[in-house]
Predict the structure of Sister chromatid cohesion protein pds5.
Amino acid sequence: MIAFDRKFEKEIKEVGNTLLIPLSSIDDLLTLLDKVFVLSCIIEIIWITAPDAPYKDEQMKEIFQLILAAFENMSHVSTRSYKKVVSILDTIEKVKLCLMMLDLECDALVVEMFQSFLKIIRSNHPPFVLLAIETIMNPVIDESEDISLDRLSSLFAIVTKEN
């Protein structure tokens, strides 16, 4: 079981790191996103085990980073990966996974997630996607003990820039 966990962890890291590098073609992206289907499976495992985390804190932080990388693809509504990312978003909303981010003190990731949401929100998204984003953001704001002025400024800068 430990060997499986290490192999799984290695694969997740490889896919996550690959997502951080711009790909040369749509086909390369689609191939990689098929591997990111692993992320969908991980999210489902988290949903099944909620409210308990099925992985160690450090592994959960890596999963959160993969989730954020996946959110970057939400701006492309017409792509094949859009449905997968929306499914991930839906599950995150249902299990309130973002509150776990607060529990693990992943404040920088929370801000990055908010920034991603604010960058990708467009009128071409179905209403349920916008509602899911709102449903994720509201409890995180409510549960945040202290939101620094710097973080708020960075969020407002995106809102005003993107209008």
Observations:
- The chain is about 75% helix and 0% strand.
